[in-house]
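HUMAN: I'm a chemist; might I ask for a sequence paired with its structure tokens?

ASSISTANT:
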Amino acid sequence: MTRGASILWVTFSLIVGCSFNVTVHDEQKAAETALRFADTLLLKESPNGANTQAHAAFRDAISVEELVRLVKAIEALGKPDSLVVQSYETFPGQDAMNVYIDGSASEGTVHYKVTVMGTGVAGYKVAGFWANTAPHTITGFHQEYSVKKEAKAA
């Protein structure tokens, strides 16, 4: 092999070896994880139960007491009667997804963004949770769920 061909082969090998990081997501598992967390936290009013479903980094950053305060602040926007998973957002090469959930409340709709970490094979844990009366800004690859998952207050 000539020197030029060797350099080309090494360059190609480095590009191929460093560029392909494929993360396989399962949007249904991610939706179930996000909905279970939101249902446990908001409808079943169990911050302890929600905390056990969270990623270790989330649990380290937010205590159960802080989750209680978070729920009280969210309820000021409107206490949901039901939750419906609407859409999801992925980020190429990352083990994170955002799942978007709408909560129906007497005061109107509250929009939730739940960040889950993991993969379709390993499963997911909740790594972030936000609530707003306006829809959240979408920045990654966004797709609507064709079958909406729902949770209702007991």
Observations:
- The chain has five helices and six strands.
- The radius of gyration is 20 Å.
- Helices lie at 3-19, 27-43, 47-52, 56-61, 64-75.
- Strands lie at 80-90, 96-105, 108-119, 123-132, 141-144, 150-152.
